[in-house]
Design brief:
The complex is a heterodimer of chains A (476) and B (280). Helix content of chain A is 11%, strand content 43%. By secondary structure, chain A is mainly beta. With 280 residues, chain B is α+β, with helices and mostly antiparallel strands. In chain B, 31% of the residues lie in helices and 18% in strands. In chain B, the strands form three sheets. Chain B has a five-stranded mixed barrel with strand order 4-5-6-9-10. A three-stranded mixed β-sheet of chain B has the order 1-2-3. In chain B, strands 7-8 form a two-stranded antiparallel sheet. The longest helix of chain B has 26 residues, at 64-89. The chains are: A mainly beta (476), B alpha+beta (280). The A-B interface holds A 112-113, 115-116, 130-133, 153-155, 157-158, 173-175, 193, 196, 198-201, 221, 245, 247, 262, 288-289, 367-368, 409, 451-452 and B 96, 98-99, 101, 103-112.
Chain lengths: 476, 280
């Protein structure tokens, strides 16, 4: 008590209250000495929450991360000590991904540019689609080609794994979709026709809505999105409504489909009958890319960093549902759309058809937007050679990563949300650290533009492919 | 009267020879009353079948202009028949057009975007650098036919015995300034005849498309060489400076523009006048 009074008199303690990201306070207001840093705050939070394992947390005061002891922070920012300081704590991923710094293998095989690369949700398999009309499956242990899947008539533009890892679907420039069996590399049936122009995107139904995974939606330049059933091998519903090409499609966790199009609108569809629920207007030019706050969880389904395998679809569904609910929390699903009008919008489609926030700052079109796996950040890649980081909940700008000398094409997050990878036209990949907001590692090596990058969900490897026709695997 | 001259319907349309047309209906009456010959239909069928061979024999044997006319008609019919056959052959079910697989595969997010290929960009940057080094302007006529010296100058013999050949007379149009005074004739090396001196040029504004008669202020650059520039020779492609005060142009700062560059677009020595286009 005396010590406390002494501290209060000499002004060496600060009155703080800890709040969680949604605003509820944890414990009451307390006096903390000024030499308290993030580590000590972590201990306090762990004890207050009565966590059995010591989980890591990151702390933010008015949206700025607290990296130094409180005293230094106060001095730097000249925060008044009379008011209660509110410290927001954010849980961080328990596991830590090793940063990637070297190219472990350069695998040739494709005879034309590699257009898309995707890891399976459990991180064990890798597939790539290319301009030579083949889809190739690669063996990650030996880093050599495993299967070559021929059957497409034109460039393979998109590939997508089902969340249970059992099916691989690829879409081509001729408008056909082919399903493959990843274990044997053989096509699982005839090509699915229906689209009249090339396929721009494929998205599977989340595992927690339906297991085993059966349905997926494909978007095409002809302006429709079609829902296909892989066991019936036909198109179930056709979502038409867009007047120009549909550039991207995402199947949301609530069982709705979001489609972004060149007609500057985003349409929200319900999946049982294919009716339009909402139309989100606001963009001034083509919508290039969509990102959902729960996207990473939907993509990986029941698999997580522990690498556990599941035997039955029901089990997978249960685990996927748990993971989804944990990720989502109480907040509604958030959607970010990046457009050719150099801005992005943050929407809460379940709540309102007006955007929640407009994210401006890019000087060229935004090509790719991606939520971090924990939903805290949104990263955007733009043709103005920069990658910008935004707050995932409010949409406010946080940091810009500059370093690329050519338009940035695609980005990918590491599974722990601490590292961000970007691939660009200037043939390099760059790894950015989110904590320090600086470049972590530069990965040169490609001979030509990098078209596709992907980080495996187990965080071990990164795969990248581009115009130089080789697939590069990078490791830590 | 036209009805009588119709071709009988039984003849095939290919047979162009005219047959005598019955001017009444007596043939039909006879047929109604007495019927046809017993072999009428067979004979008719066989005769029509022979027409094909006869037609072909006629076409092969015919000589001269008649042969050419027959051949032309046959060719026209063949082309028409081929077209109708092709039309019928088109199936009503649409098959998807099999595009050939093209080179230069790009991912879906780059489709629909016109990207200049890198080679073009590189060559563009190199050209830009070269231009900057050379200090070239962007002009409507970038390249001109080079004018040789013997075309430009005529050798003037001088001296008592007319053996000295160091004088030259310019054979192209020139511009000399208003304060021009000749050098003493004994010493002047280049003679610019007054008949070929011009002070005004017909200058066209490229956007407004109207032509003005403007005074020349000076010759800025002759593409054939700096010597010609200093002499004031105006050939096709020469950049001249003209007085545009009558156009009433004003700079954004508010100052009046009175001189602008223009490029000569004709061969003035052939036409007797200087046509130029204003460089805006």
């Amino acid at each position: 008590m005396e010590v406390e009074r002494e501290q209060a008199e000499t002004g060496k303690s600060v009155m703080c209250v800890l709040t969680d990201p949604e605003g509820t306070t944890l414990g009451g207001t307390m006096y903390l000495p000024q030499n308290v840093g993030p580590l000590q705050l972590q201990q306090i939070v762990n004890t207050l929450l009565k966590n059995e394992e010591k989980l890591p947390y990151a702390f933010y005061i008015s949206n700025q991360e607290l990296l130094v002891p409180l005293g230094n922070y106060l001095e730097k920012n000249k925060v008044s000590m009379e008011k209660t300081l509110s410290i927001v704590y954010q849980p961080q991923a328990v596991f830590r991904i090793r940063p990637i710094n070297r190219c472990s293998a350069t695998i040739a095989g494709h005879t034309e540019a590699v257009l898309s690369v995707a890891f399976s949700p459990d991180g064990r398999q890798l597939a790539s689609g290319s301009g030579d009309t083949t889809v190739r499956l690669w063996d990650l242990n030996t880093q050599t080609p495993m299967f070559t899947c021929t059957g497409h008539k034109n460039w393979v533009l998109c590939i997508a794994w089902s969340p249970d890892g059992k099916h691989l679907v690829s879409g081509s420039k001729s408008g056909e979709l082919l399903c493959w069996d990843p274990q044997t590399g053989k096509p699982a049936g005839n090509p699915l026709t229906g689209h009249k122009k090339w396929i721009t995107g494929i998205s599977w139904e989340p595992a927690h809505l339906n297991a085993p995974c059966r349905r997926f939606v494909s978007a095409s330049k002809d302006g429709d999105a079609r829902i296909w059933d892989i066991s019936l091998k036909k198109c179930v519903i056709c979502l038409s409504g867009h007047t120009l090409a549909v550039t991207c499609v995402k199947w949301g966790g609530d069982g709705v489909i979001y489609t972004g199009s060149q007609d500057c609108t985003i349409k929200v569809w319900e999946t049982s009958e294919g009716k339009l629920i909402r139309e989100l207007k606001g963009h001034g030019h083509w919508v290039n890319s969509l990102a959902l706050s729960t996207e990473y969880v939907l993509r990986t389904g029941a698999f997580d960093h522990t690498g556990k395998q599941y035997s039955s679809p029901e089990e997978m569904k249960k685990v996927a549902l748990e993971r989804y609910n944990k990720m989502k929390g109480n907040a509604p699903e958030r959607l970010v759309s990046g457009s050719d009008d150099f801005t992005m919008f943050l929407w809460e489609p379940a709540v309102s058809k007006h955007h929640k926030f407009r994210m401006t700052g890019h000087q060229q079109l935004v090509n790719h937007v991606y939520f971090s796996p924990d939903g805290l950040w949104v990263a955007s890649a733009s043709f103005d050679k920069s990658v910008k980081l935004w707050n995932g909940a409010t949409g406010e700008f946080v940091a810009a990563f500059r370093g690329h000398v050519g338009p940035v094409y695609q980005i990918s997050w590491s599974a722990d949300s601490r590292l961000l990878l970007s691939g660009s036209k200037d043939s390099t990949l760059k790894v950015w650290d989110i904590r320090t907001k600086k470049l972590k590692q530069d990965l040169p090596g490609h001979a030509d533009e990098v078209f596709a990058v992907d980080w495996s969900p187990d965080g071990e490897k990164v795969a990248s492919g581009g115009k130089d026709r080789v697939l590069k695997l990078w490791m830590g | 009267m036209l009805a009588g001259f119709l071709l009988p319907p039984s003849l095939p349309s290919k047979d162009q020879s005219f047959v005598a047309m019955p001017q009444g209906d007596y043939i039909e009456l006879h047929r109604k009353r007495h019927g046809y010959r017993h072999d009428f239909f067979e004979k008719k069928r066989k005769k029509e079948a022979r027409q094909v061979h006869e037609r072909s024999a006629k076409a092969q044997k015919a000589l001269g202009i008649k042969g050419k006319m027959i051949a032309k008609k046959n060719y026209a019919e063949k082309a028409l028949m081929k077209k109708t056959l092709a039309m019928h052959e088109e199936s009503s079910s649409r098959r998807k057009v099999d595009d050939e697989v093209q080179d230069g595969a790009i991912p879906a997010y780059l489709m629909d975007r016109e990207n200049t290929t890198r080679a073009k960009v590189l060559s563009n940057t190199i050209k830009q650098k070269r231009k900057e080094k050379a200090g070239k302007w962007e002009v409507p006529i970038p390249k001109v036919r080079p004018v040789a010296e013997d075309e430009m100058f005529k050798v003037i013999r001088s001296g008592k015995r007319k053996t000295k050949q160091w004088k030259r007379m310019v054979t192209k149009c020139t511009f000399v300034g208003p304060g021009f005074t000749r050098k003493p004739p004994k010493y002047e090396r280049f003679i610019r005849p007054s008949g070929l001196r011009f002070t005004k040029a017909h200058v066209t504004h490229p956007e407004l498309k109207c032509t003005f008669n403007l005074d020349i202020i000076g010759v800025k650059k002759n593409p054939n060489g700096p010597m010609y520039t200093s002499l004031g020779v105006m050939t096709k492609g020469t950049i001249i400076e003209v007085n545009v005060s009558e156009l009433g142009l004003v700079t954004p700062a508010g100052k009046v523009v009175w001189g602008k560059y223009a490029q000569v677009t004709n061969n003035p020595e052939n036409d007797g006048c200087i046509n130029a286009v204003l460089l805006v």
